[in-house]
Every structure is written in structure tokens, then in C-alpha cells.
């Protein structure tokens, strides 16, 4: 479709008014509530944004302020952000599972005086933050269940917000359009948190005009139509979900659908039948693992058919085609079961996706493509074309996006530097970090190592800071090996070590649902995660998975020893970011004794430590962790040396 001109429609609210004026009755969004899909037209969206705008203005929101939003994915989240943009404010999405201390840091740093919260859970979090920070003036909540006994003067219910807004609208009915007209493409619309793998997240300032211009380049590479459907599955504070849920609908009028809950998301997706998908690598990995879990519950014949069809399909994909037999027997039914039958474009990004996971979904007939980008550059700026089988690269850059390899080595590998139309305006209140990130000639240092292949496709190796070298001088990418390990349905997370060490080792977290199902099938008793991970038979099961991965790797990059951790890596413990990226410095520090033990002479290590349960309770656990050795003569020689 022809995209609107950004000469005059250079902000999000201007595009909203444009769409509502020209296609008022066209469906823009759906939200499932109590089993029913409720539709909102473009006119409905404009009216909702207008109502929230007047309410926020009545609370004192001014141009240049920061409006914080925390809660689950739903139209109200998007409308609140657009209402803030209409008032000339910046929106700051906060992940709904953050701890109070994390939220306090972000709110203090941004200076947010108004927070739009979803429900009682988020209100409790914000009240705790407000007690330790004097910046929060108002907490607006949408879901009033459980809120009747709250009497804090900073709390504003949704009905109260609307009532305040109606009074202001009666006094100044044209204020909404006036404020939108004042906005320009130079205005910062979105403050987006960076991943924060090594420190507190930074806030990237994204200008509305630059953001929209960049998305036009994206839509040239991967077009959308008003009849297309997208299901909002990933956290809205993530930059790419805001690309798909805020930017793309405003430009191309793709319909956005909000599932009823995370638990029903996959079933809700089947009802919608999306044409476009964006899922994080961990979601693709979990989807593949869930399929294998269900297969374990089936009969021997079904398991045999599944294994043969997957094997046949993946072999066919390696040759650049699809297996008709696998398609007829299994793959077509699997796509239909997952709700992928209508998918024309599927993407994954935010972290590297293991090539085996990639092969699996391509073999299924899902047109999966890898994209690459950064928050600071308005999200993705490279994408695989889909015209060829490509497991390893992140595709070619969009038009007007320049990518260079800085200071390449003889193999052509160096740091990736980029300039895009969606370049950020710097980090909010952090000029020092901005100066460190940008080169003198305006390129962004991504911190990633990569190279271009003969076809001009960008290949990402790893974070430069994470690329490691053994004491024998062998270089390796921990992330590459970890992704291969995570293709096993029994591995939820893996962290590989070996920098300045004689060989590679790993700490592995089991995928509890899958390993638990396997244990039940094989008559292995267990009571919890720790108990299951400590089972010698489970260790043997994971050893088979590690050996299988080792067989596909050069000898110097093979994992020689591993142990199964007594718990999952958890964002609440600081071990993962909110987008599920490993914080290696935290893992290295917290599990230093375990890492040292992997390079020692003992066959196990005793651990006594404190853990935090999901309900906030703390408890102490004791565990004896078995160290599994897969050493050959090469590793033993390196160790003795």
C-alpha cells in the first residue's frame, strides 16, 4: 500500500487523526475480554485518546514531561502513550514484572510525575516506589478490582480521570487538536529502555519524525496492508513491539489484536490467524519445546511420525526446498494447530536465534526471518529477504540505513557501526553515555561483532565484550554455543564459560515442563525443580544433549564439563534482563564457586544458599550438584598443561 506522506503527518497523534478522519469505521484494534473479541475502530481510538488526553492535562501533564506506563498489553496502554504524545509529553514503558527498586530507578531518572498503572498489583508497586521517591504526584489505575479500600490521595481511578477530562474538555473543547498541531517530528515521543545487560538501563530518546521515517524503510522491506493481522504477544516496553503496535498501525493500518491473558495467548492467536508474527527467540524456543512435550504424551506411532517428519523436513530445508511428505503428514497440521496457517511474514529478534530452532520452523513452513537492530536506532534495520534459505545471517540493511564494520580483522570481523533514519537523539539525561556510544562522525557503536558475507548480508557473531579466548588461544562465541544447547527441548538456559581457561564448561538450567514430562513418562519421582535437576538420570539425559551439540562443533569449542543449576535464571535475581538476556557479569560473580568447581578435580560441589520464591518468600536450600565430565584426550592434556 502507499504510505502517507510524513511532510505534514510527522507525529503519531497527527497520523491518528488522519486515520480516524479517513477510515473512521475501519477496525484498528481488538481486545479479548471474557472470551469475547471487542473491536475498536479508528474513530474509537481517536475518541479514547482524546478522553485520556484531557484527563492527563487536568492532572497537570505538560509538554516535555515524561508519562510512565506500566501494565499488561492492551489498547489502554497504547492509547495512554498516544494521549501523552498528543500533550507533547514523552512516553516511558516499564516492564510489568519489574521489581520496585528497578521501577524507582527508572521513574527517578525520568522524573515522571504521572504513572498510568494497570491494576492493583502495579498500584502496590507504584505506591511502594512513591514512598521512597517524592516525584510521583499521580497514579492512574484502569482496573479497579481490589481497589475499594485504597485511599491514598495520589490515586486516580479511570472513571475519575475521565470525569476530570470531561470538565476540562467542556472548558477548552479545541485543546486536543491545538496541542497536536503544535507537535513536530523533532519532538521526542518515546523514551525506550535499553537492555541493561551490564548496568542500569539507559533511556533512548526517539524522535517521532525519525521513528516514522525509519518505519517507512522497514515497510518497504516487509510491506503491510490494512487487512493484515498482528497479535501483540511481546512486552510493549520493548522497542520492536512499539514498532509493530504503535508505529506500523499508524502508517499502514495493520490491525492489532490483544490476547486476553498470557496464558490464553496461543489459543487466542489461533482464533485470529495472524498474517505477521514477531516473537522473541525464547518464545520460538518455548513453542518448539511445547510441541515436543505434547508429542511425549502421544502414542509410539505419533512420536515416530513426528521425529521422521521433522528430520525429513529439516533435511529438505537444507537443500533449499520443503518436504511434501512431511507437509502432508505433519507440518500443515502443526501450522494450523499453532495458528500459523495465514502467516506471510514471521520475524525474530532481540537476541540470536539458534540455527537449529530456525531450521525447525522453516521446515514447518513458517517463513521465519531474522532481523537485527538496536533500541537507539528505532529497532530493526536489517532483515533477511526470505528469498533464500538463510540460517546464519541477519539479512541486508534497509534502504537509507548504513552499516559498516569498524577495524575489521583479516576475516572481515569487526565492530558493527550504524547510521539509520531512526537515529536516537541521545540518552535521556546521560550525555556521557551518549558521547561514548556515538563516534565523532555520527555513527553508533553497537558493541556487536559481525561481518558481511559475499552477498552483502550481515552476520552477527556475539557481543564484542563476550567473545572469549581459551588459555590455549582458541577463540569462541559463548552465545553461539548456548543457542545450540537451547535447541534441545530439555534446556531452558545455558551459560558457557572458558575465557582464559583450558577448555569450555557450562551451567545449564533444565526446561522444567519438558524434563518433568520426561521424568513422569520414565517413572522418575520428583517434587520440585531442585529435586528434578539433581536426579542422576536427568543429568544423563542432559549429557546426551550436550554430546549431540559437541558433535557439531570444532573440538576446541566443545563443552567438556557441565552441571545443572538448582534453580532457573531469573530477572528478579538480576541474572537476566527483562528481555531474557543473560547478565554475564552477574552470573560470573554469583556462581564463581560453581565455575571454579567445573575446572577442579571434584565430581560434585555442595551448595547452601538463599533463594526467593515467586510469592516473595525467601528460603534456604541445600544441593549437591554433580559435575558431568565429557573430556577427551585434548581436554585432559589442556587441563594438565
Helix content: 25-40%
Q: Which class do the helix and strand fractions yield?
A: alpha/beta
Shape category: globular
Share in β-strands? 15-25%
Give the CA-CA distance, first to last residue: 65 Å
| CATH uppermost class of the domain at 12-272 | Alpha Beta
In the predicted model, the low-confidence regions spanning at least 5 consecutive residues are: 633-641
Strand order of the largest sheet: 7-6-5-3-4-8-9
CATH fold-level topology of the domain at 12-272: Rossmann fold
- What CATH architecture of the domain at 12-272 do you see? 3-Layer(aba) Sandwich
Supply the CATH superfamily name of the domain at 12-272: ANL, N-terminal domain
| Backbone CA Rg | 25 Å
Tally the beta strands. 28
Main β sheet profile: 7 strands, mixed
Number of helices: 22
Provide structural commentary:
A hairpin with a 5-residue loop joins strand 19 and strand 20. The C terminus is likely disordered. Among the domains are: 261 residues, Rossmann fold, CATH 3.40.50; 173 residues, GMP Synthetase, Chain A, domain 3 (2-Layer Sandwich). The strands form seven sheets. It has a seven-stranded mixed beta sheet with strand order 7-6-5-3-4-8-9, with helices on both faces. Strands 12-13-14-15-16 form a five-stranded mixed beta sheet. The radius of gyration is 25 Å and the shape is globular. Helices cover 39% and strands 22% of the residues. It has 22 helices and 28 strands. The protein is α/β, with parallel strands linked by helices.
Can you give keywords for this protein?
641 residues, alpha/beta, Rossmann fold, five-stranded mixed β-sheet, 22 helices, 39% helix
Amino acid at each position: 500500500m502507499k504510505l502517507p506522506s510524513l511532510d505534514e503527518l510527522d507525529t503519531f497523534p497527527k497520523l491518528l487523526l488522519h486515520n480516524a478522519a479517513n477510515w473512521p469505521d475501519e477496525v484498528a484494534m481488538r481486545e479479548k475480554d471474557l472470551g469475547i473479541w471487542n473491536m475498536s475502530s479508528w474513530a474509537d481510538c481517536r475518541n479514547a485518546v482524546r478522553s485520556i488526553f484531557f484527563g492527563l492535562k487536568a492532572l497537570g501533564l505538560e509538554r516535555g514531561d515524561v508519562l510512565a506506563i506500566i501494565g499488561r498489553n492492551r489498547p489502554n496502554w497504547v492509547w495512554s502513550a498516544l494521549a501523552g504524545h498528543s500533550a507533547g509529553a514523552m512516553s516511558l514503558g516499564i516492564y510489568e514484572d519489574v521489581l520496585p527498586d528497578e521501577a524507582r530507578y527508572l521513574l527517578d531518572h525520568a522524573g515522571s510525575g504521572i504513572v498510568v498503572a494497570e491494576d492493583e498489583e502495579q498500584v502496590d508497586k507504584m505506591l511502594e516506589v512513591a514512598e521512597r521517591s517524592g516525584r510521583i504526584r499521580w497514579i492512574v489505575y484502569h482496573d479497579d478490582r481490589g481497589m475499594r479500600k485504597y485511599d491514598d490521595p495520589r490515586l486516580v481511578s479511570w472513571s475519575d480521570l475521565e470525569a476530570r477530562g470531561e470538565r476540562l474538555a467542556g472548558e477548552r473543547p479545541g485543546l486536543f487538536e491545538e496541542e497536536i498541531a503544535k507537535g513536530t517530528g523533532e519532538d521526542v515521543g518515546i523514551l525506550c529502555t535499553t537492555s541493561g545487560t551490564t548496568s542500569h538501563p539507559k533511556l533512548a530518546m526517539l524522535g517521532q519524525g525519525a521513528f516514522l521515517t525509519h518505519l517507512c524503510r522497514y515497510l518497504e522491506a516487509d510491506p503491510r496492508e490494512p487487512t493484515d493481522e498482528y497479535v501483540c504477544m511481546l512486552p510493549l516496553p520493548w522497542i520492536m513491539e512499539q514498532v509493530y503496535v504503535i508505529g506500523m498501525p499508524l502508517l499502514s493500518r495493520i490491525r492489532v489484536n490483544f490476547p486476553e491473558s498470557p496464558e490464553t495467548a496461543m489459543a487466542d492467536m489461533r482464533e485470529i490467524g495472524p498474517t505477521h508474527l514477531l516473537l522473541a527467540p525464547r518464545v520460538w524456543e518455548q513453542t518448539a519445546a511445547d510441541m515436543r512435550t505434547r508429542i511425549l504424551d502421544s502414542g509410539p506411532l505419533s512420536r515416530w511420525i513426528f521425529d521422521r517428519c521433522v528430520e525429513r523436513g529439516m533435511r529438505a530445508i537444507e537443500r533449499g526446498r520443503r518436504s511434501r511428505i512431511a507437509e502432508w503428514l505433519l507440518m500443515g497440521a502443526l501450522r494450523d494447530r499453532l495458528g500459523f496457517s495465514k502467516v506471510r511474514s514471521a520475524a525474530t529478534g532481540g537476541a540470536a536465534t539458534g540455527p537449529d530452532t530456525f531450521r525447525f520452523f522453516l521446515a514447518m513452513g513458517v517463513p521465519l526471518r531474522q532481523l537485527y537492530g538496536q533500541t537507539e536506532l528505532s529497532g530493526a534495520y536489517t532483515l533477511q529477504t526470505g528469498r533464500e534459505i538463510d540460517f546464519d545471517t541477519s539479512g541486508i540493511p534497509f534502504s537509507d540505513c548504513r552499516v559498516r564494520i569498524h577495524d575489521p580483522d583479516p576475516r572481515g570481523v569487526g565492530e558493527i557501526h550504524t547510521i539509520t533514519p531512526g537515529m536516537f537523539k541521545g540518552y535521556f539525561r546521560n550525555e556521557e553515555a551518549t558521547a561514548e556510544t556515538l563516534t565523532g562522525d555520527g555513527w553508533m557503536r553497537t558493541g556487536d561483532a559481525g561481518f558481511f558475507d559475499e552477498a552483502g548480508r550481515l552476520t552477527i557473531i556475539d557481543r564484542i565484550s563476550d567473545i572469549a579466548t581459551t588459555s590455549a588461544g582458541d577463540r569462541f562465541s559463548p552465545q553461539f554455543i548456548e543457542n545450540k544447547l537451547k535447541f534441545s527441548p530439555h534446556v531452558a538456559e545455558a551459560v558457557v564459560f572458558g575465557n582464559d581457561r583450558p577448555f569450555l564448561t557450562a551451567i545449564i538450567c533444565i526446561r522444567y515442563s519438558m524434563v518433568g514430562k520426561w521424568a513422569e513418562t520414565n517413572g522418575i519421582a520428583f517434587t520440585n525443580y531442585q529435586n528434578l535437576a539433581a536426579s542422576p538420570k536427568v543429568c544423563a539425559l542432559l549429557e546426551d544433549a550436550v554430546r549431540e551439540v559437541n558433535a557439531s562443533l570444532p573440538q576446541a569449542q566443545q563443552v567438556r564439563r557441565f552441571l545443572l543449576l538448582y534453580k532457573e535464571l531469573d530477572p528478579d535475581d538480576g541474572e537476566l534482563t527483562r528481555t531474557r538476556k543473560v547478565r554475564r557479569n552477574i552470573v560470573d560473580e554469583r556462581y564463581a564457586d560453581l565455575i571454579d568447581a567445573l575446572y577442579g578435580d571434584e565430581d560434585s560441589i555442595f551448595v547452601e544458599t538463599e533463594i526467593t520464591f515467586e510469592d516473595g518468600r525467601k528460603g534456604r536450600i541445600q544441593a549437591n550438584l554433580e559435575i558431568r565430565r565429557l573430556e577427551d584426550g585434548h581436554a585432559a592434556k589442556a587441563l594438565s598443561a
